[in-house]
């Protein structure tokens, strides 16, 4: 089973950062993604979705230092749901992306300063959790198993 979210959008505001009593650091920010489509009359419409993003520990400190309102950002993480009671005792539910990686896509950054590309670079921290980097390939092809696609028609596909 997979719970993985990848978003590219713009920050709605500067990250809100809190330092908890146990020393943990948490940052929250909103990310806007846009989708364009044609309506029934053939006119182009733009739909903006807002996503609540949460980052923890060193990633939260990095968000505080690097992210500013309006910046384009690439985010990877997982979708989570929280339930709680508000001040009036009403049950509330929220959906958040708990990010384990982000990268600023803002232009104007100098080469080698750790930002500006769309995907993780060699200097970036790799996401924590069930994600692991691709294994390094050896220079000899003989170490790779010979895998052939199954014989059959494309009509056998379930989709």
Structural class: mainly beta
The number of E-state strands comes to 6
Q: What is the CATH class? A: Mainly Beta
How many domains comprise the coordinates? 1
- Described by the principal axes of the CA atoms, the overall outline is globular
Q: Can you give the helix content as a percent range? A: under 10%
SS summary, helix count: 1
- CATH-defined topology: OB fold (Dihydrolipoamide Acetyltransferase, E2P)
Radius of gyration: 21 Å
Given as residue ranges, the uncertain stretches (5+ residues, pLDDT < 50) are 110-119, 130-150
Question: So, CATH architecture?
Answer: Beta Barrel
Please identify which CATH superfamily we are dealing with: Nucleic acid-binding proteins
Order of helices and strands: EEEEHEE
| Strand percent estimate | 35-45%
List the SSEs and their pairings.
Blueprint lengths: L4 E7 L4 E4 L5 E14 L5 E13 H10 L5 E14 L5 E14 L55
Parallel strand pairs: 4-6
Antiparallel strand pairs: 1-3, 1-5, 2-3, 3-4, 5-6
Explain the overall architecture.
- This protein is mainly β and 159 residues long.
- The protein has one domain: OB fold (Dihydrolipoamide Acetyltransferase, E2P) (Beta Barrel), CATH 2.40.50.140.
- It has 1 helix and 6 strands; from the N terminus they run ββββαββ.
- It has one helix at residues 57-66; strands at 5-11, 16-19, 25-38, 44-56, 72-85, 91-104.
- The chain has a 5-stranded mixed barrel.
- A hairpin with a 5-residue loop joins strand 2 (16-19) and strand 3.
- The two termini are 19 Å apart.
- Mean pLDDT is 79; it is low at 110-119 and 130-150.
């Amino acid at each position: 089973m997979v719970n993985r979210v990848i978003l590219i959008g713009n920050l709605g505001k500067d990250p809100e950062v809190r330092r908890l009593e146990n020393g943990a650091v948490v940052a929250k920010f909103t990310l806007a993604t846009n989708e364009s489509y044609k309506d029934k009359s053939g006119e182009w419409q733009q739909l903006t979705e807002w996503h609540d993003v949460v980052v923890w520990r060193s990633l939260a400190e990095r968000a505080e230092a690097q992210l500013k309102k309006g910046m384009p950002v690439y985010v990877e993480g997982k979708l989570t749901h929280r339930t709680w009671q508000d001040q009036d005792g009403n049950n509330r539910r929220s959906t958040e992306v708990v990010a384990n990686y982000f990268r600023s896509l803002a232009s104007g950054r100098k080469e080698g300063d750790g930002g500006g590309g769309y995907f993780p670079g060699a200097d970036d921290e790799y996401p924590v959790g069930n994600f692991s980097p691709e294994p390094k390939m050896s220079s000899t092809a003989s170490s790779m198993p010979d895998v052939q696609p199954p014989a059959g028609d494309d009509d056998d596909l379930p989709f």
